[in-house]
Structure formats: structure tokens, C-alpha cells
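Practice problem: SHSP domain-containing protein
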Amino acid sequence: MKSTIILPVDVQTDKSLATLKNGVLTIKLPKSEKIKTKKIEIKHHEE
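Answer key — C-alpha cells:
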């Protein structure tokens, strides 16, 4: 059996975990961290 699910968010595939216990498949896929942005002040000097 094969099933494909498209997730609405990016996940950390290297930290994913799948377990099968008592016939129940549990899959844990941690969300990827959002890209952090940083504002930088640009100083303008007139000549």
C-alpha cells in the first residue's frame, strides 16, 4: 500500500518520526522554522 499526502507547510524531514504500534501508524513531522528577517537601517549621506 502507498499513500501520498501533500502538507500545507514545510517540515523538518531529518527530524521526522514514524511508529507503528497495535496497528496504528503515528507520524510526527515537526514544522520548519520560519525564515527570520532582520531590518537594517540604511544611512544616506548627501555629498
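Discussion: The chain has a mean pLDDT of 86. Students who identified this feature from the C-alpha cells alone can consider the problem solved.
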